[in-house]
# Entry
Amino acid sequence: MYDFAYHKPKSVADAVALLKKSPEAKAMAGGQTLIPTLKQRLARPSDVVDLGGVADLVGIAVAGGKVTIKAMTRHADVASSGDVMKAIPALAKLAANIGDGQVRNRGTIGGSVANNDPAADYPAAVLALGATVVTTERRIAADDFFKGLFETALKDGELITSIEFPVPEKAAYIKFPNPASRYAMVGVFVAKAAGGVRVAVTGAGPGVFRVKAMEDALAKNFSADAVANIAVPASGMNADIHGSAEYRAHLVTVMAKRAVSAAG
# Structure
């Protein structure tokens, strides 16, 4: 691990100031990605800005037809929140199945979304529910936030402060997890709202993406049969020792059918 300066600010303003002071500074939320990369010497920040001391970045609220989850809220707290369970049970279930107990009690929703790991669970919820990512500088629609492999619309020194999830009419998330890491080899989040149906896929490709053909079919007939014969191309899908691109493409349809059935 390389040397770096460690900071633990107490306010969002102080955290932003520290990040903007040095272009090589990195923010740390739960540390589930940053700490391993530091240990492996894959990252060499000049400063680590630990957001764990910023109390204003923790909390869950339900009002006005939306669930607002602040960035430093841990996965375990989302999973156990009665408010989330009542408003968007699919989101609580998603959080309850992230990693293991240790990961859920350290990892945060803001850190996961900002990191945009191609196999992370939360990006699928953000995209399928048409959420809004609120930062220290602006509000970013889900469709504009995720840009590619570990890439988002966030600028240097810009922090996620909360994520606003509109409450859907029905929704469900089903994933095929890697048996060791519990990361999604393929995860599909389906949500139906007044504005239509959205289907978001994580784990299968280099980043989270929507499947328009499935959305159009489900808008006409919200049933598992409607997506049963819709296949996504294997071209561009992830491939590794755990599954080929063709296997992951097949799993997208399988997980979509299960998600629609679970949503009811």
About this structure: The longest strand covers residues 184-193. The mean pLDDT is 96.
